[in-house]
C-alpha cells in the first residue's frame, strides 16, 4: 500500500482549510506562497501575516528589488516540510500564519505609494496580527514604520544594513531608500537611544542619536557579543527589525542594489538573529533583494532564511506559550 502524504494531492497554498501545520508538497511545483502558507485575505484569528511589497522606484543604484518578494517566496519552498531548524518551538504549527499576498499599487503614481503601503500595513495591524514584509527596496520601511508607530507609538529599531539611510532629506515629497531612516527619526517614529544599526560600513555624518555597531566591530567582537549589546540597547522596548540584505557581504548576497564589501557573513547574521528571541518584536521586514543580479539565486535563498528567522522572532512569545 502506497504511503499517502497529506497535501501531495493539492496545492495547499489555495486549498488547505487551516493555516496551521506543515506542508508536504514537491519543492519544485505549486504556488510559491511563503513557506507554503495559505494565501488569504481573511485576518480573523491570524497571528502573523506575510506580505510582499514589490517596489524599487526609490533605489539609487541598481533596480530589481520589485522582484524580491517573488524570489523569497520561491526560495522558501525549499524548506516547506519541516519546522525551522534549531528553534525550541514550531511557529508553523503553533501559530496562525498566512501569506497575505502583495500590495497592489499603480507603479505610475509613485506619489500615492507611501499612503497605500501605510494603509495596507495598518489594515493588518488593526486585526491584531503582526506583519512580516518581503521587499522591495528599503524605502518601504518608512510607511511601514508609520503604520506601526500609529498603533504602538514610537519604536526601537534594529537595522541590519551596510548603509545608515540617515542622509538628510527634509523634502516631504522625496521618496528615497537612502533617507528613509532620517525621516523616520525626524517624524518621531523611532526611539533613537533604544535603536541600533548593525553592519554599517559607509559614511554617515550624523547618526541622529542611534547606536551603531559597524561591520568592523561585528568582526572584532563576534556575533554573540553583538547580540548581547543589541539586547542591552533595546531592553524591553517594543521594537521593529529591518534587515537589508546588503548587510551581508556581496560574496554571500550579490543580488542587491548597492553592494559593499566587508559585510557580515551568514553565520554572523544567523547567530545574532537567533539570540534576539524574546525581544518585544512588533514587526519586521527583509529588503533589497534584486534577483536579476544573482543568476544562481543565492541571495533569494538567504533572504528566505532571514525571513524564516524573522517569522520565528515575531511569533516567539506566542508560539512558545502554545508549544
Description:
- By secondary structure, the chain is α/β, with parallel strands linked by helices.
- The protein has a single domain, classed as Ureohydrolase domain (Arginase, Chain A, 3-Layer(aba) Sandwich).
- It has helices at residues 12-15, 68-76, 91-94, 113-126, 141-152, 180-186, 215-221, 223-234, 266-274, 298-322; strands at residues 48-53, 97-102, 130-135, 156-160, 196-198, 211-213, 239-244, 281-287.
- An eight-stranded parallel beta sheet has the order 2-1-3-8-7-4-5-6, with helices on both faces.
- The longest helix is centred in the last third of the chain and has 25 residues, at 298-322.
- The protein is globular.
- The mean pLDDT is 93.
Question: What topology does this entry show?
Answer:
Blueprint: H1 12-15, E1 48-53, H2 68-76, H3 91-94, E2 97-102, H4 113-126, E3 130-135, H5 141-152, E4 156-160, H6 180-186, E5 196-198, E6 211-213, H7 215-221, H8 223-234, E7 239-244, H9 266-274, E8 281-287, H10 298-322
Parallel strand pairs: 1-2, 1-3, 3-8, 4-5, 4-7, 5-6, 7-8
Amino acid at each position: 500500500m502506497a504511503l499517502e502524504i497529506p497535501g501531495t494531492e493539492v496545492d495547499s497554498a489555495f486549498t488547505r482549510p487551516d493555516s496551521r501545520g506543515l506542508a508536504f508538497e514537491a519543492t519544485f511545483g505549486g504556488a510559491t506562497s511563503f513557506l507554503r502558507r495559505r494565501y488569504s485575505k481573511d485576518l480573523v484569528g491570524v497571528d502573523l501575516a506575510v506580505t510582499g511589497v514589490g517596489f524599487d522606484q526609490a533605489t539609487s543604484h541598481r533596480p530589481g528589488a520589485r522582484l524580491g518578494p517573488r524570489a523569497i517566496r520561491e526560495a522558501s519552498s525549499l524548506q516547506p516540510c519541516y519546522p525551522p531548524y534549531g528553534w525550541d518551538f514550531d511557529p508553523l504549527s503553533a501559530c496562525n500564519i498566512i501569506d497575505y499576498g502583495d500590495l497592489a499599487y499603480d507603479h505610475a503614481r509613485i506619489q500615492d505609494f507611501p499612503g497605500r503601503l501605510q494603509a495596507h500595513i495598518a489594515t493588518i495591524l488593526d486585526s491584531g496580527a503582526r506583519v512580516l514584509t518581503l521587499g522591495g527596496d528599503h524605502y518601504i520601511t518608512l510607511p511601514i514604520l508609520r503604520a506601526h508607530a500609529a498603533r504602538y507609538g514610537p519604536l526601537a529599531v534594529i537595522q541590519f544594513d551596510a548603509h545608515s539611510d540617515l542622509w538628510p532629506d527634509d523634502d516631504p515629497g522625496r521618496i528615497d531608500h537612502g533617507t528613509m531612516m532620517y525621516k523616520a527619526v525626524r517624524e518621531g517614529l523611532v526611539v533613537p537611544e533604544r535603536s541600533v544599526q548593525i553592519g554599517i560600513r559607509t559614511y554617515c555624518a550624523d547618526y541622529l542619536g542611534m547606536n551603531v555597531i559597524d561591520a568592523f566591530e561585528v568582526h572584532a567582537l563576534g556575533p554573540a557579543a553583538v547580540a548581547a549589546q543589541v539586547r542591552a540597547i533595546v531592553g524591553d522596548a517594543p521594537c521593529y527589525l529591518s534587515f537589508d540584505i546588503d548587510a551581508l557581504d556581496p560574496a554571500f548576497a550579490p543580488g542587491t542594489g548597492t553592494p559593499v564589501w566587508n559585510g557580515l557573513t551568514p553565520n554572523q547574521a544567523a547567530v545574532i538573529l537567533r539570540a534576539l528571541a524574546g525581544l518585544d518584536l512588533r514587526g519586521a521586514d527583509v529588503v533589497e533583494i534584486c534577483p536579476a543580479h544573482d543568476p544562481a539565486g543565492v541571495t533569494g535563498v538567504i533572504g528566505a532564511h532571514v525571513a524564516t528567522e524573522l517569522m520565528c522572532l515575531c511569533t516567539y512569545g506566542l508560539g512558545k506559550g502554545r508549544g
